[in-house]
Known about the structure:
The complex is a heterodimer of chains A (about 250) and B (about 350). Chain A is mostly helical. Chain A has a single domain, classed as MetI-like (MetI-like fold, Orthogonal Bundle). Chain A is built from 12 helices and no strands. Chain A has helices at about 5-25, 35-40, 45-75, 80-90, 95-110, 115-140, 145-155, 160-170, 170-185, 190-195, 205-215, 215-245. Chain B is an alpha+beta fold and about 350 residues long. Chain B folds into 2 domains: about 5-230, Rossmann fold (3-Layer(aba) Sandwich); about 240-345, CATH 2.40.50.140. Chain B has helices at about 45-50, 95-105, 110-120, 125-130, 140-150, 170-185, 200-205, 220-225, 230-235, and strands spanning about 5-15, 20-30, 35, 60-65, 65-70, 80, 160, 190-195, 205-210, 215-220, 240-250, 250-255, 260, 270-275, 280, 290-300, 305-310, 315-320, 330-335, 340-345. A 6-stranded mixed beta sheet of chain B has the order 6-7-8-3-9-10, with helices on both faces. In chain B, strand 11 (about 240-250) and strand 12 form a beta hairpin. Chains A and B meet through helix 7 and helix 8 of A and strand 6 and helix 2 of B.
Amino acid sequence: MKLSLPAIAYLAVFFYLPFAIVVAYGFGYPEFTLKHFFEIFNPIYAQFFLNSFIIAAITTLLCLLIAYPVAYYIAVKSKKWKNTLLILIILPFWISFLLRTYALMAILSKFDLLFTFTAVIIGMVYDYLPFMILPLYASLEKLKVSVIEASYTLGAKPLETFYKVMVPLSKPGMVAGCLLVFVPALGEFVVPTMLGGVSITTLGTLTWDLFIKYHNWWRGSALSVFYMIIVVAAILYYIKRVGRLEI
Amino acid sequence: MVTYAVELENVSKHYGSYEVLKDITLRIRKGEFFSILGPSGSGKTTIIKIIAGLVSPDRGCVKFNGEDCTNKPPYKRNIGMVFQDLALFPHLNVYENVAYGLRIRKVDEGEIREKVFKYLELVNLDPKIYAKRRINQLSGGQQQRVAIARALITEPSVLLLDEPLGALDFKVRQHMAMELKRIQKTVETTFIYVTHDQSEALTLSDRIAVINSGKIEQIGTPQEIYEKPATKFVASFIGEMNFISARVENGEVFSEIGRVRVKKLNGSREFLISIRPEKVRINDSAENSFEAVVEEVNYLGSHLLLKLRVGNAYLKALTPSSVRIKEAEKVVAGWNSEDAILLEA
């Protein structure tokens, strides 16, 4: 217990305390009001919400489509290959996220894609793909190949087998992967800013602007708290789902 | 011309440099309980997967009812399969597992219900109690029954069973084997049963193919396989067998324990005389008799299994336990030449 104090103190000073301040500002510190929460639902911000939502949704969908075959491929490989392939998937994590995004800027500008919507999607998918592959892999690994074969012998074609057997059995992984990608993608700031430039505005860039450009800590805080509520709700939904699916 | 339920013609398969199957030819009759018997790693599971279409052969062809199906995918073959690990769908309950094949075939709900109940009853699972159960709420034997019902409900032309009893306890295993026989008699479907258990194969099958290292050693009825094994492998894999090496010199047969009489020579100069332990006669007149010393007596209940030393060789003998024999006793052991099988050395 005593040995955990440094960690708790560290979190308290650098996370809970700042977050408490953000919450306080969100409620209008030094006053107490809910008006800042109403302000963020102003129609002029609708575009920011919509952009964030569209980017997060497209990123999640693309990650799911790309990750599923990869995760399945790794799951059915022999143990020796599995570990090698999994290391290859998490290899990008060993290099700083910022550094990788800078590198991506250089690459995308070669193709005249930098500061476009496409560039943002490419960057987002690249950054979030492992978060989709890993939970999908964990679910698919438990799926026995013989169950798929059984479906074939019962007359089901590959596509029917996919919908009737593989999708239901890998649902926990799909739900986990989608949440792990969608939620942070919704609040992503670095990728849209660096790869999208000023043309792509999202919740992340809006929060930055409110705090840094307009010094409107109250509205910025209200937005942060609102985003936090979405995150917590998503996580609670997931826990409920997972509990029901018995993993 | 007879059409067979399943035919394999000159089927070969290799994985990398490892040859799993070498030129396999099998003809399985309609309505037959056919077993493929062999030790683990002999290629028997590969044979059944080739029949199912889950593995494609390198060479050779697979026919169903005389029609070449080598390139047909499993979902077009009208087969049923019971897997080694059963492979039940863990996300579906008993009812939905059994109904799966019919749902794929878009059968209407009323008929599905009727058939699911019929097949659950066939495998002795009360649908009223078990239909709504989850798979993990069933015992091993019950899961077995669900897997059989699921595989039979589509009325396949052939049911493939890949060591389905392997995971069960001995008692349940024996009981389920008898159940399989009963079910096969009821539905009259061709059963192809893969096993490494010789006693299961002998009791259940109409015919058996014994396979070793990817090659067929012998195909025959249980009696033929047991009483007239074609190779040393078959003789030693099925039941117990004594082997005595022998050679022919000037028309006379000399074995490692002395001169013997054999029924007829097969032309080779060196061969093995094989005698089942139950054919070894103790203190009884026999064409070939030798003095022996009892080295071991194993009490098996109804019988005694004796280990006899004859010169430098050993013989196993099975004798009713009513015969009182003690260790170190001197006996006369022998056999009649008609009870001996001559095999290539």
